[in-house]
User: Fold this.
Amino acid sequence: MPQATVESLDREGRGVAHADGKTIFIDGALPGEVVEFSPYRRKAAYEEAQLVRILRPASSRVTPRCPHFGVCGGCSMQHVDPRTQVAAKQRVLEDALKRIGKVTPEVVLRAVQGLAWGYRQRARMSARFVPKKGGALVGFRERRSTYVADMHGCEVLPPVVSALIDPLRELVGALSIADRLPQIELAIGDAVTVLVLRILAPLTADDETRLREFADGHGIQFWLQTAGPDSAAPFHPKSAAPLEYGLPEFGVRIGFRPTDFTQVNQTVNTLLVSRAVRLLDPQRGERIGDLFCGLGNFTLPIASRGAEVTGYEGHAGLVARARENAAANGLAARFEVANLFEPAACAALPRFDKLLLDPPREGAIEVVKALPESGAPGRIVYVACDPATLARDAGVLVHAKGYALRAAGVFNMFPHTSHVESIAVFER
Assistant:
């Protein structure tokens, strides 16, 4: 059995070692450990391997809290103590900035953390009717598989939601459309928990009765989704409280639909918005653009500081709800529909004193390429969910647009996973 000494963690939380001239990525191995491994994928320059035995454990290794860890694909780092997880994510960010963008931040911001367990207020769970398993399965997919993990709870879901997994399995298995219900989406607001059932066939009257009884008995609201996300509609109870979350520092409340994008970790989102606004430092009368603004998560707090802010978003439904949120909060923020992946749309943006960018994983390359040589924003705060695209865009900002990377740091939005959420500040 081959052996190796693990040197570091990669961006997916795998141990990285070298043997026989190849880089070895070892699932479940930690830096400093001497391990035996078994390759399951071999390439010319690297191998991907499964951990077989730990010959010398690392001090950062802990016992995973979840009994499904290693089978369920929802978490990849429960065997790593939380401080080491965050340090590894900070290294991933710094390495990406240096390697891809050829840039180094002047200041590394202190990492921001929230709850380590029970933090997920958004989740998309699979449902499968598997007679060989005794009925329905509800949960996350297995690692490197399309199968649904046979799970009975989840440590990163709030306890009251984790406790619903077994009752949901029984409910799905009792429905006439048990084999036509592939997905259950979770969305938790300040006053209501919503479960969206993706259904591919009509419910019977008995099905509807079961859903109503389940919702009433467990204090949740069911929505039904028959096609795309915009088809989702409340089923029972119709009179439930609206989905919304608060940003108390700014006196703002954000309303949303359960299929809208919102951050999975509302505690860390609150800290993220607070830091982003402080770094942006909006002043009364400044013209500020919030690009990829979604529901107004950053736009409305910026507006609360007196700046003249406009949010741009490609999804018309999100723009409509952002405008509703601005009106409900009594704020003068403007919102416009714009496809910020199109060069022409980016070139047509007005000039701003400052920008906030919060793009999806694809990054904001067309936005940064379109920044003018003169009259460009003096400060850009960039919130990123992918270190690689942030680093790519940072390289353009620094080397082609004349910005300096003043600071960068991570937010542990997804504890026990390899996902890296980060923030960076650029000035010229």
Q: What stands out?
A: Residues 87-115+244-427 form a domain with the Rossmann fold fold (CATH 3.40.50.150). Residues 82-101 form the longest helix (20 residues). The radius of gyration is 23 Å. The chain has a mean pLDDT of 96.
